[in-house]
Write a structure and sequence with these properties.
This protein has one domain: Rossmann fold, CATH 3.40.50. Helices cover 39% and strands 18% of the residues. Helix 2 crosses helix 4.
Length: 160
């Protein structure tokens, strides 16, 4: 319910609460003694431009920027973008989600050798994270870790 309030009703203070908890978890991913080149870059799952315009914000970016600040990691909203707008995923099966997201994400820059923390609000089947991670790896990322606030239970996404 809280994520619905953030995502669809613009309750942005919830992004701070959720983002800080993500940031606490990310502190373990990037210890302070790491070499600069292996420090993960925090990247949000992008929204389609039309959804961003209608919503007014990208909840994944709101979460990512708070989490990155909390974990003292760099973040970039511009590394990944959507090549096209896709239908909403909510009522799609895993296979339909994968088809829906085929080649939809494109990296805007080369990220050779980078470790990436991909931030999203909710993971249902993993199709969005898989598609975004594939685009980041095509752009040169050596490792992509998906970090999400909520994970739906398997029974909630076994739509046929």
């Amino acid at each position: 319910m809280l994520m619905i309030r953030l995502k669809y009703r613009g309750a942005l203070p919830l992004a701070r609460e959720f983002g800080e908890r993500l940031g606490d978890a990310l502190r373990e991913v990037a210890p302070a003694n790491r070499h600069r080149d292996s420090i993960p870059l925090v990247v949000p799952v992008p929204l389609a431009p039309s959804r961003l315009a209608s919503r007014g914000f990208n909840q994944a970016w709101e979460l990512a920027r708070v989490a990155a600040r909390r974990a003292s990691l760099p973040a970039s909203v511009g590394v990944l973008h959507r090549a096209r707008t896709t239908p909403a995923q909510r009522r799609l099966s895993r296979d339909a989600r994968q088809r829906n997201l085929r080649d939809v994400f494109v990296a805007s820059e080369r990220i050779e050798g980078r470790h990436i923390v991909l931030i999203d609000d909710v993971m249902t089947t993993g199709a969005t994270c898989d598609a975004a991670a594939a685009a980041l790896k095509r752009a040169g990322a050596v490792h992509v870790l998906a970090a999400v606030v909520l994970r739906t239970p398997p029974s909630a996404h076994s739509i046929n």
